[in-house]
């Protein structure tokens, strides 16, 4: 099967849409009832908050984490999962598919904090620089991308398709001195930007990201940020609602919901508008789509080109 070459930037660039805050109401989430969700990094923080919210909405959840879930529920299935292991990820998807026959939504969320600044040099006995610690890329980026690859594999084979939400971060689009973490989170946003033009409208899978600011979780102890910096935080439940609305609202695709101190805004429209102002007529994706179209005339498919 070859990929869609359609240029599908459906971003709303209207002034009213750009960075306007919005509210998420309970009635916006009722369509999550009885839907099947797969969540990674589900045992703590934002993942756990999302699992709790989904269960409140009468959804079915297949939850993966290195740690056991701190709650039990007849609609919750836990599968011990390390997102750095392809075998583990394949197996949690199989559990969900076998148990429910479909997977409607996937939340690729597992993550850890930064491991290196690249200035904290580790050397061997000869004084030669050792390779830096890349665990953050393995979990926060490669783990998330592999989760999405499996989600797409399963969802494209089910008539109704599905939706995916990735946990990006406010550090996906600004300077942030946790270097490896920031690099990985830019990559997560980059993955969404790369994959969305290949999916809709021919493959009915929506992909969106969340970009939480400081949220009290296992990574951010309660009270610490406020006491140390004066900056306010938010609870995982606030962020969970941004995940849920991206899944519940079939009109959302390629969006990045930023949440800070309990306020929500869609950031991707503003970011892409800035990019469009810079590049003018030379939109890279439009050029790529035309190149692939032209090459298909020479018998070269998009997939053969590895695009
Ligand atoms: N807390 C914040 O302020 C904040 C802000 C922006 C983004 N995030 C992101 O939110 C996501 C969730 O983090 P959190 O803040 O809720 O932290 P958390 O530590 O409370 O939760 C992370 C969960 O991921 C799990 N996990 C870690 N490595 C894993 C692996 N290899 N395989 C499977 N599960 C693994 C942990 O066991 C834990 O349950 C992460 O991607 C993080 O980068 C957090």
From TrEMBL:
Keyword set, alphabetical order: Oxidoreductase
InterPro entries the UniProt entry points to: NAD(P)-bd_dom_sf (IPR036291), SDR_fam (IPR002347)
Presence of keyword Plastid: no
Superkingdom, natural source: Eukaryota
Transmembrane parts of this sequence: none
Pfam families: adh_short
Family: Belongs to the short-chain dehydrogenases/reductases (SDR) family.
Protein name per UniProt: NAD(P)-binding protein
Native organism: Knufia obscura
């Amino acid at each position: 099967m070859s990929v869609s070459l359609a240029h599908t930037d459906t971003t709303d660039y209207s002034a009213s849409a750009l960075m306007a805050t919005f509210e998420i109401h309970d009635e916006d989430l009722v369509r999550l009832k009885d839907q099947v969700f797969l969540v990674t990094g589900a045992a703590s923080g934002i993942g756990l908050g999302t699992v709790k919210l989904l269960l409140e909405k009468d959804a079915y959840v297949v939850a993966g984490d290195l740690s056991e879930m701190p709650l039990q529920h007849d609609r919750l299935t836990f599968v011990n999962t390390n997102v750095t292991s392809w075998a583990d990820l394949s197996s949690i998807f199989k559990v969900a598919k076998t148990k429910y026959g479909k997977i409607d939504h996937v939340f690729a969320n597992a993550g850890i904090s930064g491991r290196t600044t690249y200035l904290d040099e580790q050397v061997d006995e000869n004084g030669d620089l050792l390779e830096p610690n890349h665990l953050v890329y393995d979990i926060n980026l490669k783990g998330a991308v592999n989760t999405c690859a499996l989600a797409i594999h399963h969802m494209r084979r089910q008539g109704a398709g599905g939706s995916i939400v990735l946990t990006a971060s406010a550090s996906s689009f600004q300077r942030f001195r946790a270097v490896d973490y920031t690099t990985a989170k830019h990559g997560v946003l980059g993955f969404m930007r790369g994959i969305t033009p290949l999916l809709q409208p021919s493959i009915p899978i929506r992909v969106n990201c969340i970009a939480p600011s400081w949220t009290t979780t296992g990574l951010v102890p309660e009270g610490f940020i406020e006491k140390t910096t004066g900056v306010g935080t938010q609870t995982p439940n606030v962020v969970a609602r941004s995940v849920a609305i991206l899944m519940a609202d079939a009109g959302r695709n390629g969006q990045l919901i930023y949440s800070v101190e309990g306020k929500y805004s869609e950031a991707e429209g503003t970011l892409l508008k800035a990019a469009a102002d810079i590049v003018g007529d030379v939109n890279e994706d439009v050029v790529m789509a035309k190149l692939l179209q032209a090459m298909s005339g020479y018998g070269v498919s998009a997939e053969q080109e590895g695009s």
